[in-house]
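Exercise 7 asks you to align residues with tokens for two separate proteins.
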Amino acid sequence: MAGSVLIDTNVVVYLVDARDVAKCERANAVLGVLEGCREGVVSQQVLSECARVVTERLPEPLSVDDACDLVSRVAILFPAMPVTTAVVIRAIDIRQRLKLSYWDAQIIATAVEHGMTHILSEDFGDHAVYEGVAVVNPFAPDFDLASLVG
């Protein structure tokens, strides 16, 4: 079985975004632990969004080669959950019911469909619970990595 923590795009982007040194260091440390204990996963959506953000949205975008290396490295370290038809259908429903953006709803739907217990993200509101999946902000002052990895 894959891990239980779905890592959102923003956490992956901080691996290479040096504008906030503290977040860069935290992302590297947290993902290192999740990789070591095999609790972290990403989704195909996260890999795609990461590629776009690091090549188009950073003040100093990565080169194509560096972006490919980052995406490849993340995909090697963390299993990539597929965006299936069931994920898309659940995302449509979640979007409508919870009034979220489609892309946020798809992250939640991916976690639900693939049996994740947590989403690691700074974008959803720390300690929120959607469809039984808890959101944890790894950059929050009260973040407790031990609670995710047992």
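Second protein for Exercise 7:
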Amino acid sequence: MRLLVLEDDAQLGEALSAGLRAEGHVVDWFTSGRYADAVMGDTAYDAAVLDLGLPDTDGLVWLRRWRARGVSLPVLVLTARDTVEQRIEGLDVGADDYLIKPISLHELEARLRAVTRRSNGRLAQVDWTHGALTYNPATKRAHWREQPVDLTARELVLLEVFLKHPRKVLSKGQLLEQLYDWRGGEPESNALEVHIHHLRRKISPDLVRTIRGLGYALGSIEELS
């Protein structure tokens, strides 16, 4: 997943970002609401982790603005405000879930998986299947024809992106956006092609179709059965 983390506490923000990246996610961490707001429309995030006690404007104000603009991004509120009334207010404003500090990184990741499942219409699905391919987003394990497939962190991210959009042609830019955050600068020009080559080699040559002039798409279920 590509995640937006909006947390002004440097120690917590660094720990969250490092922990989520270690689990294979791409994370953009911001300490100010206005910076996060500025990139919201230009970057395709899967979910956001939103602190409420921000230095510029309260997190609920930003959440209210995003929902008013029609932003449907799943948002998990992370806060020390623990009264029932405060949680109700956050949910009514548009939060998808609420987690009280201090938190467990494993619980945070599980809740993020839950809110993104709901947003993608996969509420009841634990394993994602496509033909003879099976992928579990919780364990990040892929199986091809019931045999485990050893994938790198970026290959797993790329596979998950394709499985989330099984009928969509994804451009090179859209895929790179899900693979690399803003910390590392521009990736190598052929980085995406290398990752796709490895997926095809490790799983199936028919796993990813090249749509000339447009991008890439997941192979059909018939080809992968």
